[in-house]
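Q: what sequence does this backbone want?
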């Protein structure tokens, strides 16, 4: 069947299923178009499963590959783009995702669409601010998606301001933090042990997570760190035995073997939940990724390795901040990174983090899931729309 024919069939199914009654307690969720169980939708789900009776909400997740998600519990699963997928999507009261929806989500009048987005704050410019560097088809999709949206989550005042001018959206912005960041407020030793066990890493090891963002055309030239040297430097500076976790962008999943050679180096690119990796990491090394802002919640050291900053800003994306404004150590060379590690001063770093958090007006306090599910509860079960605004 051609792609055009598949789309016509899909639209016909949507037309039919949009005539079926909406189930008021049904919540339909997906993350990165069904590729994973992660990000904000996962943590909203986990919170509901832990804190609400089993029959209060009917949770439905969409996955591209259901067979790899058999161990997940507490909700029903459907295969993306299947007949059941369209039925569940069309009859859900609440739809939650962390990325743009396509024209194969035809929102109904009484549905409530929550856009969580996938970062609490970002360094790279997004959406309208980066329109000239985005594909025309994406811009069109983003504009249509924003029209469907009822609620957009924000992690800080700075993000709210970005959304207001760049998201093609003038609706309500929910200023209570990012659900996925609630985990980083918890000193959850059991969770840390669980993640390390899953990755076959001894519990006594210290973890440095290298998680760079992608480059235009998926260039890999700058992923040239010397892990052995970094390991040695971290051991000398902070003590302990270290393991390097390498988490590349999913676009590069077939090329990770090129960058994960050496002893005490582990490729975690296929690991679904980056927040769990941030939880177990003692140190983060990144570049232009929004992960740096999530990780700052832990107050653990973060180093930025940006040897291509001039080329990146010119060829990929402009930035919302000058790198020198950020509270993290920056280096433009491998030697410089080792020097930054060597001279790291924790008390100075904590003061810089505090000043930055105050500047951006952070909403993160570890209760984003609680506040959002209160709102969802009102959306699903309140007869008066005016009552929804009193949910939090």
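A:
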């Amino acid at each position: 069947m051609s792609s055009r024919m598949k789309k016509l069939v899909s639209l016909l199914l949507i037309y039919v299923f949009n005539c079926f009654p909406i189930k008021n307690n049904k919540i339909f969720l997906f993350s990165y178009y069904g590729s994973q169980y992660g990000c904000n939708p996962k943590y909203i789900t986990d919170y509901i499963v832990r804190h609400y009776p089993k029959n209060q909400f009917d949770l439905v997740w969409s996955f591209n590959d259901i067979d790899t998600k058999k161990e997940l519990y507490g909700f029903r699963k459907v295969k993306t783009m299947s007949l059941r997928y369209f039925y569940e999507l069309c009859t859900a009261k609440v739809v939650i995702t962390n990325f743009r929806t396509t024209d194969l989500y035809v929102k109904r009048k009484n549905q409530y669409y929550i856009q969580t987005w996938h970062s609490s704050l970002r360094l790279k410019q997004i959406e309208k601010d980066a329109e000239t560097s985005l594909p025309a088809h994406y811009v069109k999709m983003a504009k249509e998606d924003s029209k469907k949206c009822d609620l957009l989550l924000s992690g800080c005042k700075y993000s709210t301001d970005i959304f207001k001018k760049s998201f093609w959206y003038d609706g309500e912005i929910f200023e209570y933090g990012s659900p996925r960041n609630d985990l980083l407020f918890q000193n959850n030793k059991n969770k840390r042990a669980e993640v390390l066990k899953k990755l076959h890493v001894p519990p006594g090891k210290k973890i440095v997570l290298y998680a760079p963002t992608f480059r235009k055309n998926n260039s890999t030239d700058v992923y040239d760190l010397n892990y052995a040297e970094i390991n040695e430097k971290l051991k000398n500076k902070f003590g302990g035995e270290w393991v390097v976790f390498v988490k590349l962008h999913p676009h590069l999943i077939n090329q990770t073997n090129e960058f994960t050679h050496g002893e005490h180096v582990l490729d975690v690119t296929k690991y679904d939940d980056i927040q769990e990796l941030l939880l177990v990491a003692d140190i983060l090394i990144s570049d232009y990724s929004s992960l740096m802002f999530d990780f700052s919640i832990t107050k653990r050291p973060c180093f930025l390795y940006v040897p291509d900053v001039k080329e990146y800003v010119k060829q990929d994306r402009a930035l919302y901040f000058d790198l020198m404004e950020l509270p993290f150590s920056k280096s433009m060379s491998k030697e410089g990174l080792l020097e930054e590690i060597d001279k790291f001063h924790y008390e100075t770093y904590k003061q810089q983090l505090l000043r930055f958090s105050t500047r951006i007006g952070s909403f993160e306090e570890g209760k984003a899931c609680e506040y959002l599910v209160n709102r969802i509860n009102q959306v699903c079960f309140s007869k008066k729309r005016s009552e929804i605004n009193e949910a939090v």
